[in-house]
Write a structure and sequence with these properties.
The chain is of the alpha/beta class.
């Protein structure tokens, strides 16, 4: 993946297919490329050093050789920002998750954290999920996590977070919950 940061422009190249886009370089921090990703429907890391994938390649799943844990991408689906994670989401990847959740809050809509490809979360990730949930509630939005891992479901049960966070069995159920009225609970096998 290549990122070229010029005086006023930034160019991203997709890790999968090699397509590229050029847009205005963010004013606040040249290393953060959320704006460019969002404008073109791309997914990936909030940082210039990647990984990034174009809107076309997002449909094909994770890029081979991506890091074992962290943020796979961010998508904007109508009024929902979807943050997709993979592998272990822990202290080492917490800053990236924090930035992704901050971006999701800045978008102003509902938030879905897709943990379907995630094997393990630690207290850092749990704290970030709770904070993102509270931020969404304060904004009048909803927050949901999609979880398939029995271990993560058990962690949510033991910590009592299963009663705080909306937990869905998969991404489809989570998106349906976020699109429905607030009285509808997401599907959950662990209920």
């Amino acid at each position: 993946m290549a990122v070229v940061l010029a005086a006023q422009l930034a160019t991203l190249t997709c890790d999968n297919c090699g397509d590229s886009v050029t847009g205005t370089r963010p004013l606040a921090d040249g290393e953060v490329v959320w704006t460019l990703l969002s404008e073109h429907g791309w997914g990936g890391s909030p940082l210039a050093d990647g990984p990034h994938r174009c809107a076309h390649c997002i449909r094909f799943g994770p890029t081979p050789g991506t890091p074992p844990g962290g943020i796979l991408g961010i998508e904007h689906l109508g009024g929902v920002t979807v943050v997709t994670t993979a592998g272990d989401v822990d202290l080492d990847t917490g800053d990236t998750l924090r930035m992704a959740l901050r971006h999701a809050a800045d978008m102003g809509g509902h938030v879905l954290v897709d943990l379907v490809r995630t094997d393990l979360i630690d207290s850092t990730a749990l704290g970030l999920l709770v904070r993102a949930h509270h931020d969404a509630v304060e904004r009048g939005a909803r927050f949901c996590v999609a979880v398939t891992s029995p271990l993560i479901r058990q962690v949510l049960q033991v910590t009592g977070l299963h009663d705080v966070l909306a937990v869905a069995d998969n991404r489809t159920a989570a998106l349906a919950y976020l699109a429905a009225d607030q009285s509808t609970a997401p599907t959950s096998a662990a209920s």
